[in-house]
C-alpha cells in the first residue's frame, strides 16, 4: 500500500489531539455534513412541495386562459369572410353609435377612426363589442383635459383583403 505524505501528516495530527478534541471535531464534521445534506437535498425538496399547490393553481388558470383564447380564435376563424366594402359599411354603421365626435376617413387599404371628445363609457363599450372584427392596427388615444371622461385620438384599421376576413 502506497503512503501519501499529506494523509500521514493529517493522521499524525489527529492522533496528537486529545480525546476530547477528537470528539468535538467529529461532532463538528457530522454537524457540517448534516447541514450540507439539509441545504443541498432536503430544503429544496421541501420548498418545492410547499409551493406546488400554488403553482398548480397558477398553471390551471393559465391553461384556462389559453383555452379561452383558443375558443375565441376558433370562433373568429369560423366567421364568414367579409369583403372590404361590407367591412367598411359595418364600420360606418357602428361608428354612428359613438355620436357626432366620431368619423371615419378611408385611405388606400386602411380606415382611420377619428375621435373628438367621445364619452369614455361609450367608447369602452364600442371597443369591447365584437361587431365586424374590429382590431385596430394602431391606437393613439388621449384623455381630454378639462372634459369629464372623454377621449380624443385615432384608431387605424387595415381593411381586409378582397375575399379574406379580418
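-> sequence recovered:
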Amino acid at each position: 500500500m502506497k503512503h501519501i505524505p499529506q494523509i500521514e501528516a493529517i493522521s499524525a495530527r489527529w492522533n496528537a489531539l486529545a480525546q476530547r478534541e477528537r470528539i468535538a471535531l467529529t461532532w463538528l464534521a457530522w454537524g457540517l455534513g448534516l447541514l450540507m445534506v439539509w441545504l443541498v437535498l432536503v430544503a429544496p425538496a421541501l420548498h418545492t412541495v410547499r409551493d406546488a399547490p400554488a403553482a398548480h393553481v397558477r398553471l390551471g388558470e393559465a391553461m384556462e386562459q389559453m383555452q379561452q383564447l383558443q375558443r375565441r380564435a376558433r370562433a373568429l376563424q369560423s366567421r364568414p369572410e367579409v369583403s372590404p366594402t361590407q367591412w367598411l359599411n359595418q364600420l360606418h354603421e357602428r361608428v354612428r353609435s359613438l355620436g357626432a365626435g366620431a368619423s371615419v376617413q378611408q385611405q388606400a387599404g386602411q380606415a382611420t377612426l377619428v375621435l373628438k371628445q367621445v364619452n369614455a363609457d361609450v367608447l369602452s363599450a364600442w371597443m369591447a363589442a365584437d361587431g365586424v372584427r374590429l382590431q385596430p392596427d394602431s391606437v393613439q388615444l388621449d384623455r381630454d383635459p378639462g372634459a369629464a371622461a372623454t377621449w380624443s385620438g385615432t384608431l387605424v384599421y387595415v381593411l381586409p383583403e378582397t375575399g379574406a376576413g379580418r
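The helical segments are 5-16, 19-78, 84-95, 120-128.
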